[in-house]
Request: fold
Amino acid sequence: MKARELIEQNNKKRALLTEENEKYYTNLLLYIRTKLTLSEQQSEEVLMEMLDHLTEGQQDGKTAQEIFGNDPKGYADEIISHLPRENKRKSFIFVSEIAINLVGWFLIMRSIIIPIIGTKASEEVYIISSLLLILLIMVMTALGVKMIFGLISQRSFDENATDKKMMIRAGLYGAGGFLVILIISFFVKEIGPSFILPWQSSLGIGAILLLTSWIMKKSRI
Amino acid sequence: MSIRSQLLKGILDGCVLAVIEKEPVYGYELSKKLQKVGLEDVSEGTIYPVLLRLQKNKLIVGEMRPSESGPNRKYYSLTSAGQETLETISIEWNQLSVPINALLSKGDEPFEST
Reply:
């Protein structure tokens, strides 16, 4: 069974848990899933086994604490330490998919904005500046994902953490990241050779890239 | 950690391999069988890190298939490397358990025999 099917089944089966067991299990699940370097397939398999175990145990009158112990974080860390890493090829395909998707959206946004501004100058693309910007956006996105996943996994077993606090931190990061991109893009505006890319071509290429990333996503899982 | 669980930690891999050798089992079955033979205070969750480690070391393999009661479960069976490891653990255990029994059991005096 593939990771995606396991995730779907997991969502359905979790509904069968009692409130207390569901809370305990969901924390384990979030903590393990947000460790991005682990093999997704292996993680989902062991998560499914634990969920099945908990469901059966629940029928026999056991609680999640009795089954997995009083230290869920320690337990999750132990599970994680025995899970294999995701292989490099898969990670590479995943990152390329996100990059293609980002550039696709970028081009489509551009094709919407240019007709609104309506100047010829805005159709000019500076190769080096564009590459720098795309790289920057990717780095910021990667950092953002890492930070938000880090927040979720920290929050998993922290009783004091609230959703509100987390939202504020994530929001601040988003705003800060956007500001950095804005400032840097202002300074690297016109570097190196340029060519004209009309908004129609921008729309076409953007659409093709989005389609590509969508196909990659479908074939990945 | 109790003394009992400390002692058990070193030999739990062997116990899990021994259960799986008899017939392929899935997680919940495995924990039930361990409890049935008397290892009651093995917290049920502890088997999952053990199963992951044994899989990583290629001593067991897991396979998803329908269980008796219907839904899919991941059944574990021994690999040939697992079989060998289990035999080694059994031999080691026997070599250790005889002198340790003699040392720790009350009433016996192993040093007297001359």
Summary: The mean pLDDT of chain B is 86. The domain at 3-104 of chain B is CATH 1.10.10.10 (Arc Repressor Mutant, subunit A). The radius of gyration of chain B is 17 Å. The CA atoms of residues 28 and 44 of chain B lie 8 Å apart.
